[in-house]
Amino acid sequence: MKLSPAEKGKVVSCCNDNLISDYGFDPDREYPIDWFKRQFSFVQDQKVREHLADEFYQTRFAYTLMQTLSLPMAKNKGIVKFQIIQYASICEALLNYALETYFKEEFESRYAATTYVDFPSALSINTKITFEGKPLYLCKGKTEKAKITWTANPTKATFALEKGVLSQDTKDKYCALYDLRNNAHILKAATADYYPKLKEASAGYELVFHFIAEIRAFFEANPVDN
């Protein structure tokens, strides 16, 4: 059985009433999505800013829908897991954006890795090298710059702490949140017998605001030329 338009409208209205935890927000003067965009006003890339705002908005709306329906926790686990995943992803996107903006070359060089590839043409086809009866092969080294988006989050967070982008407390909470986020993998969650908790999602929501505040402060203290 479907809800009537009036019933749907009531649900959406309840969700909207609890969407933004900012007493200064006036729904008669501003759309909710515009409030979320303002949180990322320091992000110069328009597409990044819009996607961050939309992800934050969608995540928050899902939470208020959960509140409005007042379902038991057994029916809310998916929404709570979604909150944890999304808040960790929003923080990671902000962190990556900050590192790409200010420290891209330094980061890529510091965490560069050396890989080795087979170099058979260095010897004639009839030449063999062995050590203790086992064959050895000649390789040549190749340095590959690190990719910020591929680097582990603890490494990025530690680098951000060193550079003054994040505080120690925010860095630690971010790493803890991202560890929870990795429990989205079912086998990992099963091994740890982990189920998402509402307090973890709430902590993630609170962390997003600390993350935004610290990265905004860094951008404002270090203006970027367009």
Protein model, in words:
The chain has nine helices and four strands, in the order H-H-H-H-H-E-E-E-E-H-H-H-H. The chain is mainly alpha-helical. The protein has one domain. Strands 1-4 form a two-stranded antiparallel sheet. Strands 2-3 form a two-stranded antiparallel ribbon. A hairpin with a 2-residue loop joins strand 2 and strand 3. The termini are far apart.
Q: Secondary-structure element sequence? A: HHHHHEEEEHHHH
Q: Give the helix level as a range of percent.
A: 55-70%
Largest sheet: 2 strands, antiparallel
Beta-strand portion reads: 5-15%
Kindly report the spatial arrangement of strands forming the biggest sheet. Answer: 1-4
Termini distance? 54 Å
Overall radius of gyration: 24 Å
Output the number of helix runs.
9
Low-confidence residue ranges: none
- Provide the structure class: mainly alpha
Number of domains: 1
Give the integer mean of the pLDDT values. 91
The counted number of beta strands is 4
Sum up the overall morphology in one term.
elongated
